[in-house]
């Protein structure tokens, strides 16, 4: 069932929208996501590589041409 994923995605969008709104409404008190990532990258440069590695892994996982329904038995499906 896809309901938990739909709810989770909507919650993630609402979370992002709320905290971005708060950062723009109170710029001296809150950081935007972009500013937060920049700050983390300045203090720990390896984090930029790890975030890219994570995003690349997700992209390969989601968009690589892999279809369990067409796999031969015992070959990863």
β-strand amount: under 5%
Report helical residue fraction: 55-70%
Mean pLDDT across the residues is 89
Tally of separate domains: 2
Number of continuous helical runs: 3
Low-confidence stretches: none
Would you count the extended β strands for me? 0
The SSE order reads HHH
Judged by helices, strands and strand pairing, the structural class is mainly alpha
Evaluate the radius of gyration. Answer: 18 Å
- Major β-sheet annotation: none
Spatial gap, N to C terminus: 19 Å
Give the overall shape, derived from the CA principal axes: flat
Structural summary, described in words:
68% of the residues lie in helices and 0% in strands. It is mostly helical and 77 residues long. It has two domains: 1-30; 34-64, no CATH class. The longest helix has 23 residues, at 3-25. The mean pLDDT is 89.
Short description:
The chain has helices at 3-25, 33-43, 46-63. With 77 residues, it is an all-alpha fold.
Properties at a glance:
3 helices, 77 residues, mainly alpha
Topology:
Layout: H1 3-25, H2 33-43, H3 46-63
């Amino acid at each position: 069932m896809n309901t938990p994923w739909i709810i989770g995605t909507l919650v993630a969008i609402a979370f992002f929208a709320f905290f971005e709104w708060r950062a723009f409404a109170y710029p001296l008190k809150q950081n935007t996501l972009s500013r937060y990532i920049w700050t983390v990258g300045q203090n720990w440069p390896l984090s930029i590589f790890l975030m890219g590695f994570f995003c690349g892994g997700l992209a390969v996982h989601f968009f690589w041409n892999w279809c369990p329904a067409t796999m031969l038995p015992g070959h990863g499906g």
